Amino acid sequence: MLRNYRWEAVSAVFFPLALACVEGEVVGVVARKALGASDLVVAAITAAPTAALLSSLWWGRLVRRRDRVQLTVVLQLGLIASVAGAALSPAAAAGSLLLLLFVYAARVFATGIIACRADIWRTNYPR
């Protein structure tokens, strides 16, 4: 197995797992039950996946001017940090807002990863 393909396979396994940890509908229920989040915060968390897709326009422009592989690695680290931050959000009053911030950050990083990976695949793998 090629070394690059092996890393791609590892990424293909763990990327969906990281996204599942910040899936809007699930995290919205957790925020309501565990943190006592308001209706507005729950609605914002639930809308995070769709709202983050708006950043794909920005990522598309940014990918053209950067090293795609290095940017993908930085975005993956940002996604991991955001998921960890969401998991470690305190159960205090500000915890639901902090959770909201981390969920949005994770989804924006995920959108960037998808944009970068599509560009990398187009460049490196023949049709």
What can you see in these coordinates?
It is a single chain. The protein has 127 residues and is mostly helical. The chain has one domain. The chain has seven helices and no strands. It has helices at residues 3-21, 24-35, 39-46, 48-52, 56-64, 68-87, 95-124. The two termini are 19 Å apart. The model has no long low-confidence stretch (mean pLDDT 87).
Count of DSSP strands: 0
Low-confidence stretches: none
Tell me the structural class.
mainly alpha
Net shape = elongated
Helix content: over 70%
The run of helices and strands is HHHHHHH
Strand percent estimate: under 5%
In whole angstroms, how far apart are the ends? Answer: 19 Å
Short descriptors:
about 130 residues, 7 helices, single chain, mainly alpha
Concise account of the structure shown:
The chain is mainly α and 127 residues long. It is built from seven helices and no strands.
